[in-house]
Amino acid sequence: MTPSELERLERRIVRCQRCPRLVEWREAVAADPPRRYAGERYWARPLPGFGDPAARLVVVGLAPAAHGGNRTGRVFTGDRSGDWLYAALHRAGLANQPTATARDDGLELRGAWVTAVNRCAPPANRPTPAERDNCLPYLAAELRLLQRAQAILALGAFAWDGTLRALAQLGEEIPRPRPRFGHAAEATIGAYRLVGCFHPSQQNTFTGKLTEAMLDAAIVRALRG
Known about the structure:
By secondary structure, this protein is α/β, with parallel strands linked by helices. It contains eight helices and six strands, in the order ααββααβαβαββαα.
């Protein structure tokens, strides 16, 4: 793998218009932002992954948030889910700072790569199966190019399922019965350790379903060995 290969993949992702519903939604959101973001220029395009090309750990989410990554142009950046994720990566020594607010905020990852199953913000955070399948080749391509990756942390059931599907596209044998998602669930798929973690959404963090300690432990679990 060379940086130019990841850069070529990034350009392909950013130009993608495979899903008309998502193209319309991401652009409509950008055209009518809430008052707190009035005057900001939204990214309003698909999001590539972000991080260290030599990453051992790949973190997979669902999709960009309408006023998070869709606004800032970087995955898990500018929203509370990202606040939780990057703070945890910083505590684990995988990020140089605990915050992610903009593409030019100085954030760097060491040994980690952050990405998502879907690259465009979907209405109600729910991509259709066809929209998921349109995006899966991008995740599979990232995993193929991240040749040092040994562990995948799937944030939520959608990311778990999408990761299994992407690995199957790469020719990896998926165990039978199919591994089921759960917080701290673990499966070995080829050369990868797949670990499940509840998504750091406000629905989970505000209710205590996911705590900082649980997120930290999931990262440690993925990296062990």
